[in-house]
Amino acid sequence: MRNLSLLYLLIFSTLATGQIVQPDCFVFEKLTDGVYAAIARPDGGSVSNAGIVDLGGQVLIFDTGLSQAGTRELIAAAKELTGHDIAFVANSHYHKDHTWGNQLFGQGTIIISSEYTRRAILENRPKDDATELAALVQQRLAKLDSSLRMETDKKAREETLWNIGYYRGLAASYPDLRIVAPTMTFSHELILNGETRTARLLFYGHASTPGDIFLYLPEDKILFTGDIVMNGMHPFLSESSPQNWLKIIKKMQQLPVDRVLPGHGPLCDDGCLTRMADYLQGLLQSAQRCLDENRSVEELKSQGVPPPFDGWYYNAIYESSFKFVHQVLQASGGSN
Ligand SMILES: [Zn+2]
Q1: 305 CA distance to ligand 1 middle (Å)
Q2: Per-residue 3-state assignment (H helix, E strand, C coil) for the chain
Q3: Ligand 1 centroid, distance to 199 Cα (angstroms)
Q4: What does pTM read for this prediction?
Q5: What are the pLDDT digits (tens) for 81-127?
């Protein structure tokens, strides 16, 4: 039963209870008793993954997704699967694909993050005009739908589906969006001691953003990483501290871990920590070489994305990340 996709279980329970819990936005997977991964579907609109953890009578949700439809699905699945109320929500960082579902949790739910994330959620309230945004999104979706019809390459089709999911999630959520910031913040570690398990929320410092926290379940050896770890998709580095991020992953690797739910991409084991460390290390080394040999960033661009990362989604991000890391190293005196 360990790896059973809960899709079928949820459909079955729908029939049994009459509740509509059939997932469109996530695929739910049981990791162990009381712990579930909600893995975002490419065109489902939630964009990022989420976690459901039964602490024993109280439930913790890790990340709330972009689309409110997805968050409703997450809440329904959590109640169906655990039979308990959602006591806690944690936001791994402030980006909308991890926080826009916050408004759907009741007043009795405590929302937790780092202090930076709470501030960034409040300071980055979207200010777009809803009508203008809707028109822009419809234009983008029309283009994406037509490129999906023309595209034959499997990877390019999947990327297009992810983009469609993002814009659909944005369009569906924006008109009713109410920004809800975390109500509890912590600096290093917050331990939730439930009746049946312990959940450690940890902040190791500036990684993909200055405020990324992650969730570790020590008894289960399960890690929910937020965007500190991506699996099969290039991360955005523009708000990162690449050197510190690498150190944080190395520190994470000291935790005994069997299963990892990355912020984006499929479930994995601790191998995806190694890959993410290799990814950042590779970028730092290439940018350093570029500086040492006095070669231009443009010159190195022609070399493209190194394997195995050329198989990841959104190769176009790599180039801007490379330029960013190069700038960071240059600004810090050219040494990492
Ligand atoms: Zn994300």
Answers
A1: 21
A2: CCCCEHHHHHHHHHHHHCCCCCCCCEEEEEEECCEEEEEECCCCCCCCCEEEEECCCCEEEECCCCCHHHHHHHHHHHHHHHCCCEEEEECCCCCHHHHCCHHHCCCCCEEEEEHHHHHHHHHCCCCCCHHHHHHHHHHHHHHHHHHHHHCCCHHHHHHHHHHHHHHHHHHHHHHHCCCCCCCEEECCEEEEECCCCEEEEEECCCCCCCCCEEEEECCCCEEEEEEEEECCECCCCCCCCHHHHHHHHHHHCCCCCCEEEEEECCCECCHHHHHHHHHHHHHHHHHHHHHHCCCCHHHHHCCCCCCCHHHCECCHHHHHHHHHHHHHHHHCCCCC
A3: 21
A4: 0.91
A5: 999 999 999 999 999 999 999 999 988 999 999 999 999 999 999 98
